[in-house]
Amino acid sequence: MTKLVSIRAFAVHVFTACGAALALMALIFATGEHWAATFFCLGLALAVDGVDGLLAREFDVAEALPRWSGETLDLVVDFTTYVFVPAYAIAASGMLPPALAIPSGVLVVVTGALYFADRRMKTADNYFRGFPVLWNVAAFYLYLLEPPPWLAAAMIAALAVLTFTPIKFLHPLRVRRLRVLNVALLAAWAVLAILALIANLNPGPYVIWPLAAIAIYFFGAGLLRRPG
User: Fold this and answer.
1) Is 47 part of any domain?
2) What would the pLDDT profile of 49-102 be if each residue is shown by its tens digit?
C-alpha cells in the first residue's frame, strides 16, 4: 500500500513536469513562427498548472514523497511556461520597435525571475501582490490585438514595473470574493481563447472584444482591493 501511495504521488510530480515538456514544444513551434501552436502548448501548460496543485493536495504528495519538492518543481516549470517561452515570443513577434524587441524579452525574463524569488508574492487573502508575471497571457494578447509597436513596448514596460508594486491582482480560483463569477469568466475565457487559436489568432471582433473585456475585469478586480 505504501509503495502504491509513493507511485501515485510521484505520478503527480511527473504530471507537473510535463509542463516543462509543453514549454519545450511551445518554444520549438515559436522558432518556426507557428504561433497558434505555441499558445496552444502554453495553454495546455496553464491547464496542467491549474490541476496539479489540486492533485498534490488530494494525494498528500508532500508527505508521501518528502524527498521531492513539489514547490520547487512547480516554480521551475512555471518559469519556463509563464516567463521564458513567452519572453521569446514577445521578442520574436515583430510587433515591437526593432531596437526594443530583445531588450523587452530580457526585461521579461529578469523581472519574472525576481518575481518567482519573492516570498511575499501572494497576500493573506490569496491575491497576487504585483503583476503575477502572466507573460504567457500578455504575449497571447499581443498577438491577438496587434497594437502599434510603441504601445506594445509601453505595455510590456508597464507590466514589468507593476511586477514590483503592492497592487493586488486577482487569482480567479483561490480568491473567495466573487469566486463563482471569477470561475465562470475564466471558463468563458478558455473557450474564447480556444476559438482564437482555431482561427489562427485572427478570430474577429466577436471573440476579440469579449476576451479584451474579460482581461479588463481580471486586471481591474484586484486594483479595487486595498494593497496588502
Assistant:
1) no
2) 888 888 888 878 888 888 888 889 999 999 999 999 999 999 999 999 999 999
Q: What are phi and psi of 164, to 5 degrees?
A: -110, 15
User: For position 67, what pLDDT does the model report?
Assistant: 85
Alpha helices in the chain (DSSP H): 2-31, 35-58, 61-64, 70-78, 85-91, 98-116, 135-145, 149-162, 179-198, 205-223
Q: What is the distance between the alpha carbons of residues 127 and 168, in angstroms, rounded to a whole number?
A: 6
- Residue 14 inside a domain? The answer is no
pTM (predicted TM-score): 0.92
Give how many domains the chain has, as a whole number.
1
Residue 128, SS3?
Answer: strand
DSSP characters for 182-201?
Answer: HHHHHHHHHHHHHHHHHTTT
User: Can you tell me the mean pLDDT for 18-25?
Assistant: 96
pLDDT tens-digit series, residues 51-62: 888 888 887 888
20 falls within a domain:
no
Identify whether 27 is part of a domain.
Answer: no
For 205, the domain range is: 69-223
Closest among 158, 103, 137 to 218, alpha carbons compared:
137
